[in-house]
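Raw record, unedited: Protein kinase domain-containing protein
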Amino acid sequence: MTWAASTLSAAIFWAKEPSEQPKIIEAFGEDQKLVAIKKVDKAKAGNAEVILLEREVQILKTIGHAYIIELLHVLETSSTMYLVQEKCDTHLGNYLNQQDDKKLPETQCQNIIRQAADALYYLHKKGIIHRDLKCENILVVRSPQSKFDIEIRITDFGLAVISGQEFQESTCGTPLYMAPEILLRHSYSLQCDIWSLGIISYRIMTGCFPFPNSVTEADLIERIKVANFDYTSSKFVSYSQKAIDLVQNMLKVDPATRIAAGEISKSAWVQGREDKDMPNVIDLMREFHAQESDED
């Protein structure tokens, strides 16, 4: 796959790829707009990848959100598919690698998690599970006013599925970001995306994953099964306890007790409020059962 920055003009659509001369692909629109082109050679990609690409196109055509990549056009010949999308500056993984200690200050992290949670809440209300949320699938748009002010775009919907309230069975995604229920080959739901966002949040706040990058799949599964991660203040340097608590709530092994996208969006830390979050139904039930046990 190749990405190329291009200019959309009234008469022609130019695409320039590395070490190639500009070539005219198609004519569109009346306004000038800088875009990105995802080019896929069907023969080289194979049937499986083409099917994923077609699924991505189908989903992107049905959604529209400020923090989700915008699909502008789809061009197709007998041998090649071109996805014309809004242009972003880099992906979150690269952006982190450019920062001191490969992590971000709390206010900037707050902004990224708010945007990601808003996008997931939108997708989950539509019954869409992304299933491959990771730093490399979150694109970054830098602000011309401030290097610390960025917007994100969730991208790469090739593994996404529209499931509604149904549970999924197929194993897919990137192991370092996979929820325990997927790694353990259990059925799973929308909440698998929240685990992935928790891993991303942990990485943004600490500069590393909650486990070694080079672990074997067997060791990774064992570590994730118990999720005994380091949440100490020495690991989350300069981060508030509210921020750490939110990450812990995203990385609950049991998806039934894991915080939901809407709860993240409305949480006190994400919204910058001083008050405490209201307990959810699961917390209230636990409290009720604990009181019953004390009375017995």
